[in-house]
Amino acid sequence: MVDLKTKFNKEVVPEMKKKIGYKNSLAVPKLLKVVLNVGVGRTRDDKQFIENMTGYMSLIAGQKLYPRPARKAISSFKTREGMIIGYSATLRRKRMYDFTDRFVNVSVPRIRDFRGFEPKSIDASGNFTVGIKEHIVFPEMIGEDIKNIFGFEVTFATSAETKEEALEFFRLMGFPFKK
């Protein structure tokens, strides 16, 4: 089994140079970071749920999550400035590649009724964002006493300059996209 960083260097870089026409290997888009975001929503007052959620997310991310406070008060959502409305983790280097490898090869095939990611999930800057409806698709959750199921968002930030470059990069990295 080849790790994702080795696959990037040995397979993706030469293929991208050939398809897109890069002259230099350093011009090929690369994965910069992976950001995991989870919102607390209506459960913000349930301390036990938040404790379980952050514990599970820490297992998935492989590092501690950081609380994200509200920037401004919104009365219709019953939030005040400074209130914790979510948690996030930014993965870089080895943890980023390990998470991405587990995500593509283990978790995505376990998603129910999965037909492939939408190419329109990639923004104009070359970043890919996907929402996960159930956190239990990750292998870290097997055998855990799971009481509540929650969803979260994963953003893969790349150095790609266009949407087309990013789409080709993600396809070569093994992400399953719809045709």
Compact description:
This protein is of the alpha+beta class and 179 residues long.
What is the count of distinct domains? 1
The N- to C-terminal Cα distance equals: 27 Å
- Alpha plus pi helix count: 4
Question: Describe the biggest sheet?
Answer: 5 strands, antiparallel
How much helical structure, as a percent, in the residues? 25-40%
Side by side, the strands of the main sheet go: 2-3-1-5-4
Describe this structure in words.
The protein has 179 residues and is an alpha+beta fold. The protein has a single domain (4-20, 32-173), classed as Ribosomal protein L5 (50s Ribosomal Protein L5, Chain: A, 2-Layer Sandwich). It has helices at residues 4-20, 47-61, 93-107, 163-173; strands spanning 31-39, 66-69, 84-91, 128-132, 152-158. A five-stranded antiparallel beta sheet has the order 2-3-1-5-4. Helix 1 crosses helix 4 (163-173). The protein is globular. The two termini are 27 Å apart.
